[in-house]
């Protein structure tokens, strides 16, 4: 007669270990008595009742917290610490690899955090919007930020219930010259309507947010105030803007952080400076950007739908419709790319994703090192496990020992990575173009940093813990573990994974650099070197002919030209051109630029057909010069002498093509050339170009120009750039990716090789006797080297085979982003793979050659 | 947490009614005082059902208060070869019982209905 099994099992399940014997005994004694007294069923029932009656606090096991014995933790810690010291090389590889991986992830994390916190400094972040325009043409929807002044006026007048503040600024913003006595400061600044200070909630150090209501006032950033005025009081001082206008400093505001849209601003001034009327109520000039702050209870989509058709009354019925909508501030930086009117994943977000993934992979590579080096030593650690288990350790306890080890490693790695982070943050900021601070005081930083290292500990430690704790103690102690095969294969897969990623990164890096160099070597259609560019002022316009003659007379200058747009952008776009006799406009948007007649001689463009403009011929306002892509766009066979009819914006002129030039790359060097149409004029033009004669040292040339400027236009600030320098800035974002990619792929291969180095060292020590015997029997060093290296070689080769299609896929996808791009060369793969194999074979050979060279007596004399 | 708090308060050597009864039964059973036997004795003496768990928990509490000690006894066959825990009263337990009895006697002696009665209790 036995008590009900299920009841016993249940009792054992919940009852404290130390009470089990007496309680089970008592209950069984009673059970037998009950059986004797009455029925079995009743006895069983009573047994159950008694069991349930033991569900009392004093008797129930403590389920919530597992039994933690502090001495055991201390013991585990001590053993982990000793293992760490015992295998110094493995520990160094493990901790070093993890530290590098963690550092990279932390950097990438900081960068992503910075990208997502863009503009969040503004108090009304959720209510700030930019007004956007949608041009709906039959075949495309274009999204644009340029608007007419009338829109801003009407928004402010008609919708005060929706918009708390409206501020317009000029569409084009560029650096301005601020002049204080002798000193010239080239600063980015914005000309806004006065409400901008409220929208951006500028923190005024001095003065008030109302300062811009008077157009002759300027407010400057704290750092600029210090730069210009030092310790002296800035309020009330005057600054000259481009030596045209005198402005009074009436406010100093706290600098906006670097990661905000207006973070580059050194000053804000009034838009009314450039508008005689107070209200720029026009509807045909799209030269404004409009920012607004919504009323507190209004949401973006609501206000968006209200203003959608605001432009309708001001446009002809048969014009393509134009709609307005609002883009909330949170989308300005990361989500403001549109294709055909629909928001698409922006390049910025793609970078974030790309680097996020790379960060995860690098961390994974480091974790794999940890797993492989730990499981590879299973013979050694197996004995330890065997002894522990024989002494009564449960599997969980053994596993916790190994987990403890991985925690120790990852915490060590975290501390090192903090140090690395601190050391390399300045250089990281440098090439990422950021100003990220070390956020000691940010709890989020610590939480995520520590969280990440704990995650790494679990990720890297769980497999070794499960694997090593699974050993049968008897086999382990006898040294007869044959778990090698399965775990070996797993290790090999992990190594292949590591190297596949490394190789993909290397091939990607090669491609990026090839692409950048390819674009850099692209013919730009004019000569960039020795070409000085600068921006004019009213004084310069008045004296431009004298200045030009004086410069040429100085002997160091070949020629001087002017244009209404600089050489490094494609602003000024017009369509509405028609061939005579055609019904429809040409389907080409031209980059229309007005230039002085010497433009061609100064920029040294490459004339393909026809002739350049010429001052001697007098008025050439109806002559145009176009680029090759413009000719192609118009579909002309004999362009010279061809007449073109311009629409109203060019007064219905009949234009005649007098020359064709090679395409000038003024915009992105990665895109197709923009069709160019050049007009000749002798009117004042804003941008000036000076070509220094060949053979004259640039510094002498600049000094000579500066002298001439001082004589002819003494009040004009001489601030210049070189055209080739300006052009190079167009590669900045690509070069940034290039640098980061080089860095990351270098680190990936470094960490992978560290792991391989450890593995090969381990493998060689395991086979040291075999090597000795082989050597005694006459094996050559080459034989031995091959024997020891070929396993790893095989792994790397399979990684290469996997990496080729993966990298091909991504390279092709990436190159699609660029209209002007390289073909995918086969040698890029060869170089990537060859360099990877070379590095890994060198790594592996170190130990195998060392072992092959060793005297076999050393390894064979023991035992 | 709450449980600890309660036991701490109750540690002040006061004897509850149930506790006092069990303590007495332990004394009566002497060598045979283990949880099951105590529960049986309780049921026969007081004619009231009680679970072994309830008895066990009270015995534990009395042990915590220092009124009982216990040690493991011999295994027997009807217990499936398991040992039993034999409880015995400590000096403190003895004193607590005496204090409790004295208070009750003193109260009884003052109770008017029995005012003229004499008890002969040793």
- C-alpha geometry of chain B: elongated
Strand order of the largest sheet of chain B: 1-2
What's the end-to-end separation of chain B, in Å?
43 Å
Tell the overall outline of chain A. elongated
In terms of DSSP E residues, the strand content of chain A is 15-25%
What is Rg of chain A?
Answer: 38 Å
Oligomer: heterodimer
How many helices of chain B? The count is 5
Distinctive features:
heterodimer; A: 863 residues; eight-stranded mixed sheet; 27 helices; B: 122 residues; mainly alpha; disordered N terminus
Walkthrough of the structure:
The complex is a heterodimer of chains A (863) and B (122). Chain A is an alpha+beta fold. In chain A, 50% of the residues lie in helices and 16% in strands. Chain A has 27 helices and 27 strands. In chain A, the strands form 5 sheets. In chain A, strands 18, 19, 20, 21, 22, 23, 24 and 25 form an 8-stranded mixed beta sheet that branches. In chain A, strands 1, 2, 3, 4, 12 and 13 form a 6-stranded antiparallel beta sheet that branches. Chain A has a 6-stranded mixed β-barrel with strand order 5-6-11-8-10-9. In chain A, helix 25 packs antiparallel against helix 26 (826-853). The longest helix of chain A has 38 residues, at 395-432. The radius of gyration of chain A is 38 Å and the shape is elongated. The model of chain A has no long low-confidence stretch (mean pLDDT 87). Chain B is mainly alpha-helical and 122 residues long. Helices cover 56% and strands 8% of the residues of chain B. Chain B contains 5 helices and 2 strands, in the order H-H-H-H-E-E-H. Chain B has helices at residues 2-10, 17-29, 35-46, 52-65, 91-110, and strands at residues 68-72, 85-89. A two-stranded antiparallel ribbon of chain B has the order 1-2. The longest helix of chain B has 20 residues, at 91-110. Chain B is elongated and about 55 Å long. Chain B starts with a helix and ends in a 12-residue tail after the last helix. The chains are: A alpha+beta (863), B mainly alpha (122). Chains A and B meet through helix 2 and helix 3 of A and helix 3 and helix 4 of B.
């Amino acid at each position: 007669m036995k008590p009900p099994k299920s009841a016993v099992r249940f009792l054992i399940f919940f009852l404290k270990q130390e009470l089990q014997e007496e309680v089970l005994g008592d209950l069984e004694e009673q059970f037998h008595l009950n059986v004797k007294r009455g029925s079995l069923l009743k006895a069983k029932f009573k047994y159950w009742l008694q069991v349930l009656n033991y569900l009392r606090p004093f008797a129930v096991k403590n389920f919530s917290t597992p039994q933690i014995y502090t001495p055991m933790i201390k013991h585990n810690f001590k053993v982990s610490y000793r293992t760490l010291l015992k295998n110094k090389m493995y520990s160094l590889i493990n901790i070093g690899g993890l530290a590098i991986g963690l550092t990279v992830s932390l950097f990438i994390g900081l960068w992503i955090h910075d990208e997502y916190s863009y503009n969040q400094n503004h108090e009304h972040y959720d209510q700030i919007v930019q007004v956007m325009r949608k041009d709906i043409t039959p075949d495309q929807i274009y999204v644009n930020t340029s608007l007419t002044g009338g829109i801003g006026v009407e928004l402010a007048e008609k919708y005060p219930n929706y918009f708390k503040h409206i501020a317009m600024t000029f569409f084009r913003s560029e650096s301005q010259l601020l002049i204080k006595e002798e000193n010239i400061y080239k600063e980015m600044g914005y000309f806004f309507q006065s409400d901008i200070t409220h929208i951006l909630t500028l923190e005024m150090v001095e003065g008030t947010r109302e300062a811009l209501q008077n157009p002759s006032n300027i407010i400057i950033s704290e750092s600029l105030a210090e730069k210009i005025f030092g310790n002296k009081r800035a309020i009330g001082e005057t600054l000259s803007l481009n030596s045209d206008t005198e402005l009074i400093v009436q406010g100093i505001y706290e600098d906006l952080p670097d990661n905000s849209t207006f973070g580059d601003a050194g000053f804000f001034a009034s838009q009314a400076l450039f508008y005689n009327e107070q209200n720029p109520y026009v509807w045909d000039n799209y030269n404004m950007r409009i920012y607004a702050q919504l009323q507190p209870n209004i949401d973006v989509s609501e206000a968006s739908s209200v203003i959608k058709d605001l432009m309708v009354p001001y446009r002809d019925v048969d014009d393509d419709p134009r709609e307005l909508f609002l883009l909330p501030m949170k989308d300005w930086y990361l989500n403001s790319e549109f294709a055909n009117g629909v928001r698409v994943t922006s390049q910025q977000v793609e970078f974030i994703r790309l680097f996020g993934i790379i960060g995860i992979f690098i961390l994974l590579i480091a974790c794999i090192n940890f797993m492989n080096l730990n499981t590879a030593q299973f013979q050694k650690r197996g004995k330890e496990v065997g002894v522990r288990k024989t002494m009564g350790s449960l599997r969980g306890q053994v596993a916790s020992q190994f987990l403890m080890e991985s925690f120790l490693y990852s915490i060590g790695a975290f501390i090192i990575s903090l140090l690395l982070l601190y050391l390399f943050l300045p250089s990281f900021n440098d090439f990422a173009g950021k100003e990220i601070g070390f956020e000691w005081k940010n709890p989020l930083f610590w939480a995520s940093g520590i969280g990440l290292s704990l995650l790494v500990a679990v990720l890297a430690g769980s497999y070794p813990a499960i694997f090593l704790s699974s050993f049968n103690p008897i086999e382990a102690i006898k040294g007869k573990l044959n778990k090698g095969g399965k775990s070996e294969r797993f290790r090999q897969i992990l190594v292949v994974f590591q190297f596949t990623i490394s190789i993909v990164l290397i091939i990607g890096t090669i491609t990026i650099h090839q692409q950048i160099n390819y674009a850099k070597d692209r013919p730009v259609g004019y000569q960039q070197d020795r070409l000085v560019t600068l921006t004019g002022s009213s004084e310069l316009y008045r004296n431009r002919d004298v200045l030009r003659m004086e410069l040429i007379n100085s002997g160091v200058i070949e020629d001087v030209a002017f244009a209404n747009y600089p050489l490094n952008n494609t602003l000024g776009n017009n369509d509405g051109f028609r061939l005579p006799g055609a019904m429809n406009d040409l389907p080409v948007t031209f980059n229309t630029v007005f230039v002085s007649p010497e433009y061609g001689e100064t920029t040294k463009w490459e004339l393909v057909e026809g002739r350049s403009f010429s001052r001697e011929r007098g008025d050439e306002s109806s002559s145009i010069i176009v680029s090759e892509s413009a000719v192609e766009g118009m579909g002309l066979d004999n362009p010279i002498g061809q007449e073109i009819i311009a629409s109203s914006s060019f007064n219905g002129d009949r234009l005649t093509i007098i020359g064709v030039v090679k395409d000038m790359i003024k915009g992105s060097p990665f895109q197709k050339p923009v069709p160019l149409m050049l007009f000749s004029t002798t009117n004042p033009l804003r941008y000036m170009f000076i070509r220094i004669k060949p053979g004259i040292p640039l510094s002498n040339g600049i000094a000579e120009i500066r002298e001439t400027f001082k004589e002819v236009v003494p009040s004009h600030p001489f601030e210049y750039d070189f055209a080739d320098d300006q052009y190079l800035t167009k590669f900045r974002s690509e070069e940034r990716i290039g640098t980061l990619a080089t860095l990351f792929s270098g680190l990936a291969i470094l960490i992978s090789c560290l792991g391989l180095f450890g593995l090969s060292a381990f493998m060689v020590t395991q086979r040291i006797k075999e090597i000795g015997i082989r050597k005694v029997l006459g094996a050559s060093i080459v034989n031995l080297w091959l024997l020891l290296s070929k396993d790893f070689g095989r792994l790397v080769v399979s990684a290469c085979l996997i990496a080729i299609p993966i990298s091909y896929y991504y390279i092709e996808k990436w190159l699609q982003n660029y209209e002007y791009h390289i073909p995918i060369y086969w040698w890029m793969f060869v170089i990537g793979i060859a360099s990877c194999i070379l590095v890994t074979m060198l790594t592996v050979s170190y130990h195998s050659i060392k072992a092959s060279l060793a005297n076999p007596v050393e390894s064979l004399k023991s035992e | 947490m709450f449980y600890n708090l309660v036991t701490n308060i109750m540690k002040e050597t006061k004897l509850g009614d149930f506790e006092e009864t069990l303590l007495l039964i332990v004394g009566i059973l002497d060598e045979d005082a283990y949880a099951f036997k105590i529960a049986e004795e309780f049921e026969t003496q007081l004619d009231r059902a009680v679970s072994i768990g309830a008895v066990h928990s009270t015995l534990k509490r009395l042990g915590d208060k220092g009124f009982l000690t216990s040690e493991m006894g011999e295994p027997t066959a009807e217990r499936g070869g398991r040992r039993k825990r034999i409880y015995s009263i400590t000096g403190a337990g003895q004193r607590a019982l005496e204090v409790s009895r004295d208070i009750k006697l003193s109260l009884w002696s003052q109770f008017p209905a029995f005012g003229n009665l004499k008890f002969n209790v040793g």
